[in-house]
Amino acid sequence: MQEAREIAAQLGNVRFSDIEPRDLEAEQHAREHLEMDPEEMLGEEVGERRRMQGVEDMLVRLSVGEGVHEQAQGRPTQEDVQKLKVRLGALGAQLGLGMNWS
Asked: Does residue 74 come out as left (phi exceeding 0), alpha (psi in the -120 to 50 range) or beta?
């Protein structure tokens, strides 16, 4: 049970922005906006991203529980998620759940 709680807590720290592939076209577009009017860019796009991350953080605190959730040291990476996937698969095997995903 403790292993399942730890995996859930660590998965709760993962944001889509932590594991999504880099969008080079969007990054170039953002750089162009920064060159034109940095205040407008920061006001809209960055502000919206921060609001979404705040909502994600609130959902983590609600779904995982206060006793289990620990503050991550830095943001999780795709590698961290893969390690959690392996741990979850091992836990499923121990429980006889035969979890298959690609």
From this structure: left
3-state helix, strand, coil in the chain (%, to 5): 70, 0, 30
From 23, 21, 41, select the one nearest 33 (Cα to Cα): 41
Question: pLDDT by residue (tens digit) across 45-58?
Answer: 667 777 777 777 77
Q: How would residue 90 be classed by pLDDT, with cut points 50, 70 and 90?
A: very high
Residue 71 phi, psi dihedral angles, 5° rounding: -70, 130
Q: What does the chain come to in residues?
A: 102
Domain residue ranges in the chain: 2-94
Give the tokens for residue 84. 């959690």
pLDDT of residue 61: 62
The HSE-up count of residue 37 (CA atoms within 13 Å, CB side) is 5
Dihedral sign computed on CA atoms, order 36, 40, 46, 48: negative
Residues contacting 18, CB < 8 A, separation 6+: 75, 76, 77, 78
